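Box S1 | Example of a co-folding query
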Amino acid sequence: MISEAKNIIKESNYLVAFTGAGISVESGIPPFRGENGIWNKYDPEIFDLEYFYNNPKQSWEMIKNVFLKKINQTKPNKAHYWLAELEKKGVLKSIITQNIDNLHHKAGSSDVIEFHGNSRNLVCLNCKSVVTVEQTNLEKIPPKCKKCNSVLKPDFIFFGEQIPTDAFRQSIDAVEKADVLLVIGTTGMVIPASQLPYEAHKNGAKIIEINIEKSAYTNTITDIFLRGKASEVLPKLSDI
Ligand code: NAD
Ligand code: ZN
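Box S1 (continued) | Returned holo structure for nicotinamide-adenine-dinucleotide
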């Protein structure tokens, strides 16, 4: 199966990768679901937009300690670097990621569509000004906008929020162009992101999936299922 997948990648005209929390697990960022998932320790309510509006301090406590601190200290793993190399070789055209951890950028990938936003920036709930996390003093939370003193929110998507329009359009465009889609470390349960591989499949793309366990795609649209850790399986798919 590895050699079949290798050939499909080699012969692809427009290869796209779709990544989820699983690709970053080996960098030390827990996924939402499963044994060591974030939801086992924290209430998903913290990422609910309504809850954030009403309890910004409580939301920020968790965001700061669990998310931003961890993400800033984290390094890409072999899977992120492999994708970055494949882009440099001109084989991989773009990455659509559901992750907000910035690890594809840190690994050197440049064509990265951040479907759920990012954790580099903060946005003002009122005047929509954008500042970087680095520029912001997080000693006192919730952090406030320097222009209008309203609460700043991380620039990633909370439950109940719209997908950024550009990211949505670019993702649809990428899956429509794709003749091969690598689906890496995602359960396929987060709507509407989860619809993208189905779109690709509908347009005739071959689906190669890498995951430690079966997902919603495995028995439906996946052509080749490669079971295993992303950082171990991906490097086997080329000589990089
Ligand atoms: P998920 O938490 O629902 O599922 C993670 C998937 O990764 C599972 O299918 C699991 O079997 C697989 N997996 C675990 N370890 C793996 C490994 N080493 N190699 C390959 N696969 C592995 O994640 P999701 O489906 O991506 O969706 C959850 C949402 O959570 C996403 O929208 C994402 O925005 C968000 N999220 C992001 C981060 C991050 O930025 N790193 C972390 C947690 C959650
Ligand atoms: Zn403001």
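Strands lie at 15-19, 92-97, 112-114, 117-124, 130-132, 152-156, 180-184, 206-211, 224-227. The chain is about 30% helix and 20% strand.
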